Amino acid sequence: MTQLKHFLQFKDFSREEYDALFARASWIKAQFKAYKPYWPLSDRTLVMIFEKASTRTRLSFEAGVQQLGGSAIYLNTRDSQLGRGETVEDAAEVISRMSDLVMIRTFEQSIVERFAAHSRVPVINGLTNEYHPCQIVADIFTFIEKRGSIQGKTVTWIGDSNNMCNTWLQAAEVLDFNVHVSTPPGYEVSPDLAGLRGTKHFESFDDPMEAARGADIVTTDVWTSMGFEAENEERARAFADWRVDAEMMQIAGPNAIFLHCLPAHRGEEVTAEVIDGPQSAVWDEAENRLHAQKALMEYLILGKVD
Ligand code: CP
Ligand code: NVA
Question: Using a 6 Å cutoff on CB, does residue 222 contact ligand 2?
Answer without folding.
Answer: yes
